[in-house]
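Quick one - first record:
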Amino acid sequence: MQEHITIVPFSEAYKEAFRSLNEEWITKYFEMEETDRLTLYYPQEYILDKGGYIAVALMDGTPVGVCALVPSKYEGFDLELSKMGVSPKAQGKGIGKLLGQHIIDKAISIGAKKLFLESNRKLAPALSLYRKLGFVEITGITSPYVRSDIQMELTLPNA
């Protein structure tokens, strides 16, 4: 049976899913950091109220993936793709790609010219996805995250 997957904007109903889907991958590979706790427990204040956006992937109505766009604090970048997580039970179904493309389309629709993201080289499937979406590796930015050892950028058609 084919699952029905839809991408919807964040609402308070998905607050717990946003937190738990991200905590799941972060604690599997790394440790939660203070920035994680602030954005995951207070997405309204730390993402949405600052002009950000959160997308939620639903599989048959159940949240199985999330991804945020956060205004970038780095010069030359409009937004940061952040806090992408897909439930292990839903991985391999193209949900990450759907979320990533949705986030890119959202960034284009609001006039962004360049996106930024941070990750870790041990997350090979995520890095592969980012490259498929068009992101390329960059250097020269000091990350606030202990776990970050790679940064990438995507120049959008608006640029």
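second record:
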Amino acid sequence: MSLNSQMFHIVRIKEVKVNAAGNSPNTDGIHVQLSRNVAIFNTSIKTGDDCVSIGPGTKDLWIEQITCGPGLGIRIKSWARPSNGFVLGVQFLDVVVFNVQNPILLFGGEKFGFSPSWVGEGLIDQNYCPHNINCPAQVSGVKVSDVIYRNIQGTSAIAVTIKFDCSATNLCSGIRLGNVSLTCRNQEVQSHCANAIGKIVGTVQPNSCLQY
């Protein structure tokens, strides 16, 4: 039953193919927003930006068996400006990456210089501010918590394979890393953390930089 739906309540997407040039900015393959009980299965998405982007008001979203590229890696990003929003209870499971820029990224604090939004980034970024417009020197009000990364394998195009860039005034918490193995050709892989609290379970390469 779907009751009083102003946008969408139940959506199922299966066996869809999306194609755009790898150097094309702002070409998200599928965008989910103001929706709940959405499932995306067995889909191929080739774009220059996010394969699947998730906006405000999304709840109970399940994504499985997705081939993504040459778009961005798995990431959470929030604008570097005040907000009452939150990201809660996200799980990234059984992911294989090949030669991606920053396989794992989360960012969300003060923003300094930043490249165009279509350039590859990392796992969590709370300092997102394309072109430094309307948010320089501000911090993200979005609370990021209870995020799990488990069974993430593959190769990175750069040495920093895990990056959690969180707000100094709104720390990321409850982050869990488990069974992560990321390598970079001819370079020693690294992790970078700012204001990120969590723990590891099992093996993690590169070594975790999370606060405990």
